[in-house]
Amino acid sequence: MGEEPNRLPTVTLSYAQTLDGRLATATGSSQWISCKSSLVRAHELRARHDAVMVGVGTVCRDDPRLTVRLAPGKNPLRVVVDSTLRTPPSAAVLSDGAAGRTVLAVTGRAPRERRARAERLGAHVLRLPENAEGRVDLRALLVALRERGIRSVMVEGGAALITSFLREHLADRLAVCVAPKLLGCGIEAVGELGIHDLGGALLLEEPSVTVCGTDILVEGEIYYPDDPA
Ligand SMILES: Nc1c(N[C@@H]2O[C@H](COP(=O)(O)O)[C@@H](O)[C@H]2O)[nH]c(=O)[nH]c1=O
User: Fold this and answer.
1) Three-class secondary structure assignment of 77-102
2) Is 134 part of a structural domain of the chain?
3) Which residues contact 216 (CB under 8 A, 6 or more apart)?
4) Under 8 Å between Cβ of 192 and 185
5) Is residue 198 included in any domain, yes or no?
6) What is the pLDDT of residues 143-152, one digit of tens each?
7) Closest to 14 measured CA to CA, from 187, 190, 176
8) Which of 66, 177, 183 has most ligand 1 atoms within 8 Å of its beta carbon, as the pocket-test mutant?
9) Which of 24, 97, 151, 173 could form a disulfide with 12 if both were Cys (CB 3.0 to 4.6 A apart)?
10) Ligand 1 centre from 157 Cα, in Å?
């Protein structure tokens, strides 16, 4: 059977949270929530995807490298969703010598001089339409990535990007690492989805639950009850 040419890349949301659903403390401290075995597994998952994606807030807070280092395998394309291009030139994704494997997804609100600077560093700046909130239109981003041959995307966060993918029904799979820790107040993994009764809850279809080191991994396909069958 041939591949559907218009199919959007498969999107997997993958993140580590505490038992009480936090990605980080209220001050943004998140390294590390998961145990070493889960970190290895996260790198294995990166290697199985064509692209790994984060929001610019995560870049500014964590300065991730988004490479495969703890497992064998190829580095995926790195994609930063960054409507006004706030990624600093010193960020690892622009300064580690592999900026040619970094896409900055921006809107028309990204100042020209910042775009030129990122391109001089070797990054690909992808100018995309904005949504009603002035942020990058995620569907347009997925279409643009598909045109570049990307068939699978692993979205690592942060909370705003995770929430947007769920709200727009653009996430296909969830792979959540739950660490046996409690933080109380902190950054919640998933924000407002506009669900007012339990019948509207997003579900994981046939989820798998496995233990990884001291963490619990929950994975499955996301079912959106409001979507037409
Ligand atoms: N805090 C947290 C994760 N955070 C994710 O890992 C990124 C760091 O990537 P890198 O610099 O390549 O190691 C970070 O920006 C965020 O996307 N991942 C996990 O498996 N477990 C954790 O506890």
Assistant:
1) EEEEECCCCCCCCCCHHHHCCCHHHE
2) yes
3) 177, 178, 180, 209, 210
4) no
5) no
6) 999 999 999 9
7) 176
8) 66
9) 173
10) 9
